[in-house]
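The material for today's practical consists of a large collection of protein records. Backbone structure tokens are a discrete shorthand for how the chain folds in space. An example says more than a description, so a record of this kind follows:
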Amino acid sequence: MNLETVFGLRGRTALVTGSSRGIGAAIAEGLAGSGARVILHGTSEAGTKAVRARIEAAGGLADELACDLAVPEAGRNLIRRAEALAPVDILVINASAQINASLADLTAADLSFQLAVNLGSTVDMLQTVLPLMAARGWGRVVSVGSVNQLRPKGIVSAYAATKAAQHNLIQSQARHYAQSNVLLNTLAPGLIDTDRNADRRDNDPEGWAQYTRSLNWMGRAGQPSEMVGAAILLASDACSFMTGEAIFLTGGY
């Protein structure tokens, strides 16, 4: 078996939403390192410039598109703009909105925002890109979910619900498109050390250390780079007999 052929992405184009930092940036750089042309996405072009510079410095190919996925039709328009650059073979749905609030404290505005970004834009993107992938006979969708889709914490009640719904969409469309060689799977991280946790980590370092030591079998938070291997698997021919599944990377949570 030629592993470069199985895991390599040369000749493929990947759109990675929310790829200006954190998990999205790490996955984008990993896909580029495997040979894919990567279309970066952020809410502003300024956010993706540093990621593009790193990809190009390593000899990779990258483009940038900016939009706010909370705006109606933004997901649909993002796919159309990406397709104008190159056919999208791989879609990584990574951008998300997470607002910490119990159900009792959840406001209508916070709920609407998380539904729009996490669910509404996902529907828009899938509706637009899946028929195109099917017509071309090859496609991969990697939805970046969360351990909360299976084991929800009360403090992220709406976020957890949207992630469960997002994986439900992935499963339903995986069944529909399986015979077109368009495969959809979810990569579900546990606690990852990103800027989303920066306030807690920086303002209470001892509390953060204690929390991460007790959270999982490995006793630590994961790193964005540790999501890359699974993302390459799900984006490549290596997952040719896998669809509708979720891979949990949680350190044994």
Summary: The CA atoms of residues 51 and 221 lie 23 Å apart. The mean pLDDT is 96. Strands lie at 13-16, 37-42, 61-66, 90-93, 139-144, 182-189, 246-249.
